[in-house]
Amino acid sequence: MHVPYAAGLMMVNPGSYPPPKENLSWWYSEDYSTLDSFAERSDQMLSSFVNFLAVKAKKSHRIYFHNFSRFDGLLLIRHLSTNHSNWKLIPLMRNGILYELVVVLGKNKRMRFRDSASAKQSSIKYMPRTR
Fold first, then answer.
1. Which residues fall within 8 angstroms of residue 58, CB to CB, at 6 or more apart?
2. Which residues of 32-56 are buried (b: 16+ CB within 10 A; e: fewer)?
3. DSSP per residue over 87-104, as a string?
4. DSSP state letters, 7-34
5. Strands 97-106 and 88-94
């Protein structure tokens, strides 16, 4: 079973590159060395990462992963469905490829996880859903 060792985040504001150092954050499973197993440390690291994102998220926040559709997204979906059951997960898949995962945190707050590599190649247009 694959479990992540680390997560990193670079928050980019349009027109501001390189981002200031306070926009860079890292999480490592070894930071949770009080937990017994590597899987537990990894799980806690991912919880800290997604909780940080949830706090930072505005009304709708886009988060891009380079390898989201084939690896990172699968790890994230497994973690969120197991450890954050109060959040609603809405995956957007086409031909067996995960293009986007919308995580609904509340009535007016959501995070959109996307694959930076497949978004460029995709013929899918990201349109807001209306209901």
1. 109
2. beeeeeeeebbbbbbbebbeebbee
3. SEEEEEEETTEEEEEEEE
4. EEEE--BTTB-SPPGGGEEEEEGGGGTT
5. antiparallel
d(CA 103, CA 81): 10
**Would you state the pLDDT for residue 119?**
57
Q: Do 19 and 12 touch, CB atoms closer than 8 A?
A: yes
Tokens of 19: 């981002």
**Cis check: omega of the bond before 14, within 30 degrees of 0:** no
Q: Is 50 helix (H, G, I), strand (E, B) or coil?
A: helix
Q: What is the pLDDT of residue 75?
A: 87
Cα distance between residue 42 and residue 30, in whole Å = 8
Instruction: Name the burial class of residue 107, with classes exposed (0-12), middle (13-18) and buried (19+) by CB atoms within 10 angstroms of its CB.
Output: exposed
pLDDT band at 47 (very low <50, low <70, confident <90, very high): very high
- Please give the Cα distance from 121 to 123 (Å, whole number): 7
Spatial distance between the Cα atoms of 58 and 41, rounded to a whole number of angstroms: 28
